[in-house]
Amino acid sequence: MEPTRNLSPDVEPEQKSLSASQFDKRPLWEAVVGMLVVGGLYAALPTRLIIGPSWLLLVIEIVLLLPIIGSLLTGRGLPLKAIRPLFLFLLGILTLTLVLSIILLVATLSTDRYAAYLLRAAALLWASNVLVFGLWYWQVDGGGPLKRHLSGHQATDFMFPQQVDGNRQGWVPHFLDYLFLAFTGATALSPADTYPLTRPAKALMMIESIISMTIIVLLVGRAVNIFGG
């Protein structure tokens, strides 16, 4: 028993350091692209639904993502642990702009008589909703990509089908897997093959479903009524 007690504290940090050095950074690039796409969708919204210039969100994203992009390209700069808070801060900004745009759309719903305008706005907001919450799921699950890597990608906040048996095959979820989870949540308004296990995960899925239901039921329904009238 004595060798086991002495080995654990000495070996575990070395194993974690080695695992962190082997961390696959491709999911981080996928998330960067996803965030920039959200900024592009926001810029394409009708001007009534945008606070400030249409390009402002993209500029904010680029400024905040430049340190991350520089670190990914050169391997220097921000450590992996510092990238997550920056991602979370930017996600908060994206979520706030999404909610404000939906509030503006609902506020002007009764005065808008153009169905094509409403359908365009609804499609852009719905796609933004899927991307934003896909990013949230990717960042929240298991404490983020790095912590999931260090834990062997065991099911924590979400359980994918590949993790049911304890993930014996070493399956690694990428951003696309969380994007699919967000897509099914926004279309079916309920989990498909991946289940939330913790309260934060359940709360995020509830918020996404509420936003999606607001867009689909109220806004698209209003557009159909305009066409019918």
- The number of helices is 8
Number of domains: 1
Distance between the termini: 80 Å
Give a short account of the largest sheet.
Answer: 2 strands, antiparallel
**Helix and strand composition category:** mainly alpha
Read across the widest sheet, the strand sequence of neighbours is 1-2
According to DSSP, the number of beta strands is 2
| Backbone shape | flat
Average predicted local confidence, pLDDT: 83
Element-by-element helix/strand order: HHHHHHEHEH
Round the Cα radius of gyration to an integer and report it.
Answer: 21 Å
Estimate the strand proportion: under 5%
DSSP helix fraction: over 70%
Stretches with pLDDT under 50, minimum 5 residues: 1-19
Describe the structure.
- It contains 8 helices and 2 strands; from the N terminus they run ααααααβαβα.
- It is mostly helical and 229 residues long.
- The protein has one domain (2-228).
- The chain has a two-stranded antiparallel sheet.
- The chain starts with a helix and ends with a helix.
Descriptors:
single chain, 229 residues, two-stranded antiparallel ribbon
Short description:
With 229 residues, this protein is an all-alpha fold. It contains eight helices and two strands, in the order ααααααβαβα. It is flat, with a radius of gyration of 21 Å.
